[in-house]
């Protein structure tokens, strides 16, 4: 049966807007990975039509901890819009999400565009600033159950991104300590090395994978490098903070 890209895009977009869990798309539609990325693109177009602006890209499953947690082994990517930005220190409300989780990340701000396959070193030369970051992921699928096509169509579970202080990219990023605290207690601990051995590799992969979809990474965009550790479920009233060695910290709170 033909895959109705627009219909599936509406399904995942509606689920995000209404914060309502949906069954896996793959149970009814046999999508290829390419078609899943087209569903993702069409769902983001719906956001753009509502007035949001494209603000960057996120990389997913770039660490073994995340792959193991979700039982998948391929890198994926998603599209960020300004509507997904959660201000550092903001308070979010669980009713706006299906079953949100949070994971510690590192974010890049691009000072120059990146187009196509490149090396980590060349990719890092396009970086204007780096920041400690948190990603709020919220798969729209019931019970967080999905296959690769499902999660790609659902914009790689992208829901919110929180960016800490931007820092000059003049330090070695390959082995920075990362501590994500929940209510002031360490919940997960890791190293930036968990991101493909060096977070620069994730940026190079972002450039390559975007090009496969005919996109370039624009100057001014944010690229989320991917989770350093496994994600933690968000609960009412908690405060979350990610501190990255040498970069500082970023956090938000969940309304009680
Ligand atoms: O690593 C990622 O950001 C991918 C998230 C998609 C899977 C999930 O919802 O945990
Ligand atoms: Mg992530």
Radius of gyration: 17 Å
Largest sheet, if any? 8 strands, mixed
Q: What is the residue-averaged pLDDT?
A: 96
Sketch the topology as an H/E string, one letter per element: HHEHEEEEHEHEEEHEEEE
Percent helix range: 25-40%
Number of strand elements: 13
Q: Give the bound compounds.
A: hexanedioic acid, magnesium ion
Structure overview:
This protein is of the alpha+beta class and 256 residues long. Helix content is 25%, strand content 29%. The protein has six helices and 13 strands. The chain has helices at 5-18, 33-49, 64-70, 120-125, 148-153, 199-212; strands spanning 54-60, 76-81, 85-86, 91-92, 101-110, 127-137, 158-163, 177-182, 185-191, 222-224, 232-233, 239-244, 248-254. The strands form two sheets. Strands 1, 2, 3, 5, 6, 7, 10 and 11 form an eight-stranded mixed β-sheet that branches. Strand 12 (239-244) and strand 13 form a beta hairpin. The protein is globular, with a radius of gyration of 17 Å. The structure holds hexanedioic acid and magnesium ion. Magnesium ion (MG) binds at residues 58, 60, 103, 105, 135, 137, 226-227.
